[in-house]
C-alpha cells in the first residue's frame, strides 16, 4: 500500500452528479483510484428508516453517517492497492453538518471534533451543484428532496465547506456529462502529478 494517499471529496447538493462522476472516474482510472461510496446512500438503502420530519431519526442517522464515513475513508486508506494514487470520496464528513437539526456548530460539538479538523482530512474539495432545471432533477428512494430543497441544501453545503484552502466549485449550469468531464480531468491531472 502507498504511504498516505491524497484524499479528494466530491460534495454538493443532491443530484449534482457526484455518483455519476465517480462511476466514470472509477471506470476510467481503475486501480489508480480508490473510491469511497457515500455512507448515507449505503445506510438508507440498507433499510435505516428515513423520516425527515423526526429529529431523533435525523440525529441518529447523521451520527451513524459520520462514523461510517470515517471508517470507510480509513478502510480505503488501509486497504488501497499498490497502484492507487488517490482516494476519491462521494461526500465527506462536513456534509453531515448541513443536515444536523441544531446547526453545524452543534454537529461538530456533538461529534467531538471541529470544522478545521474535518476540513484538514481532505486535500481537495470538488463541489458540484444540482441542476437548476426541474426536468433535469431526479429524486430517488434515497434522495427524497425536491429541487427547491436540493438547491437550499447545496447553498448550505457550499457554506460548510468554505474555508478549505483547495476547493473547486464546478459551474452549476454544466450538464452531468460536462461535470463528469471536469472531474475526470481534475483527477487525471492529480494522478499524473502523483
Q: Quick summary of this structure?
A:
This protein is α/β, with parallel strands linked by helices and 194 residues long.
Highlighted features:
194 residues; alpha/beta; Rossmann fold; 5-stranded parallel sheet; 8 helices; 5 strands; 48% helix
Structural category is alpha/beta
Name of the CATH homologous superfamily:
P-loop containing nucleotide triphosphate hydrolases
Which spans have pLDDT < 50 for at least 5 consecutive residues? none
Q: Given the C-alpha coordinates, what overall shape results?
A: globular
Sheet with most strands? 5 strands, parallel
- Terminal Cα span: 14 Å
Strand content: 5-15%
Number of strands: 5
Radius of gyration, in angstroms, nearest whole number: 16 Å
Q: Summarize the amount of helix as a percent range.
A: 40-55%
- Helix count, DSSP H or I runs of 4 or more residues: 8
Order of helices and strands: EHEHHEHHHEHEH
Q: What is the CATH C-level name?
A: Alpha Beta
Mean pLDDT: 89
Amino acid at each position: 500500500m502507498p504511504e498516505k494517499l491524497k484524499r479528494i471529496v466530491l460534495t454538493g447538493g443532491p443530484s449534482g452528479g457526484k455518483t455519476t462522476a465517480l462511476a466514470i472516474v472509477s471506470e476510467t482510472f481503475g486501480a489508480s483510484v480508490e473510491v469511497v461510496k457515500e455512507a448515507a446512500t449505503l445506510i438508507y438503502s440498507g433499510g435505516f428508516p428515513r423520516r425527515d420530519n423526526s429529529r431523533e431519526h435525523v440525529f441518529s442517522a447523521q451520527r451513524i453517517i459520520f462514523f461510517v464515513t470515517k471508517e470507510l475513508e480509513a478502510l480505503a486508506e488501509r486497504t488501497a492497492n499498490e497502484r492507487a494514487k488517490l482516494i476519491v470520496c462521494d461526500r465527506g464528513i462536513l456534509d453531515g453538518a448541513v443536515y444536523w437539526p441544531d446547526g453545524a456548530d452543534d454537529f461538530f460539538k456533538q461529534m467531538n471534533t471541529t470544522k478545521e479538523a474535518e476540513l484538514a482530512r481532505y486535500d481537495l474539495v470538488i463541489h458540484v451543484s444540482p441542476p437548476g432545471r426541474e426536468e433535469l432533477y431526479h429524486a430517488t428512494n434515497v434522495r427524497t428532496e425536491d429541487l427547491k430543497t436540493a438547491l437550499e441544501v447545496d447553498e448550505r453545503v457550499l457554506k460548510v465547506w468554505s474555508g478549505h484552502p483547495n476547493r473547486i466549485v464546478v459551474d452549476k449550469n454544466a450538464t452531468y456529462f460536462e461535470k463528469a468531464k471536469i472531474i475526470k480531468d481534475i483527477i487525471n491531472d492529480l494522478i499524473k502529478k502523483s
